[in-house]
Specification:
With 248 residues, this protein is α+β, with helices and mostly antiparallel strands. It is built from 6 helices and 10 strands; from the N terminus they run H-H-E-E-E-E-H-E-E-E-H-E-E-H-E-H. The chain is elongated.
Length: 248
Amino acid sequence: MNPYPPKRRHLGQPVLILGLLLVTFLLSACGPAVVNPATREQANAFTTQAAAGQYRLQPGDELDIRFYYNPELNTSVLIRPDGRVSLPLANEVQAAGLSPSELTQRLRSAYEAELRRPELTVIVRSFNAQKVFVGGEVQAPGVIQAIGPMTVLQSVTQAGGFKESARVNEVLVIRRDPAAPTSNPIVIPVNIETVIDGTNTAEDIALLPYDVIYVPKSPIANVNKFVDQYIRQNIPFGFGLSYGFDFN
């Protein structure tokens, strides 16, 4: 019988500190991905126009302005990033956020002081805004061309689907007011997990042009990354299993 007991590796304070760090990280990882999420009322305020069924002009759209009685004023313009267009006699006109028919009425009013019969029409020559951006824990992040209406889950599917590390219950939709593209965005968390299991399909909200869909890492993915970076790489033996074993 060996009179000498097995030697123990006394980790003491380092392991205690690492354990406390791990517990702290576990608790913080379970919190929400966004601190100040938008309410559904705020989100719906931006989607009311989209739900009306009329296309809303966006920066990058190319327009043809055609005058019935003053063809010399016919022109093609591109909606600038600030949402405006520059036209002869009418100067700067806000176009983004309006439907083509609403812009037609606005231009008629703008030209009334200059033309006797300001009859005109607005034709959308090319659509540049029918795209969304998908990033984070998806297989193929990038720009998604939205041909027709698109929801959050549809955009993620087109981006290759979720990674195993995705936080499916808190996907973030980052959105700007289409009528004020330079305004501060809002962040809308949606629970796609309840969409997939069928308990709340209303969470799969409709997207607007230029929406950014960001899929954060899940809490367990964050914990695994933390353990790998701060524990496994800093302890030269198997964490947890080696404590109390013979190192002879």
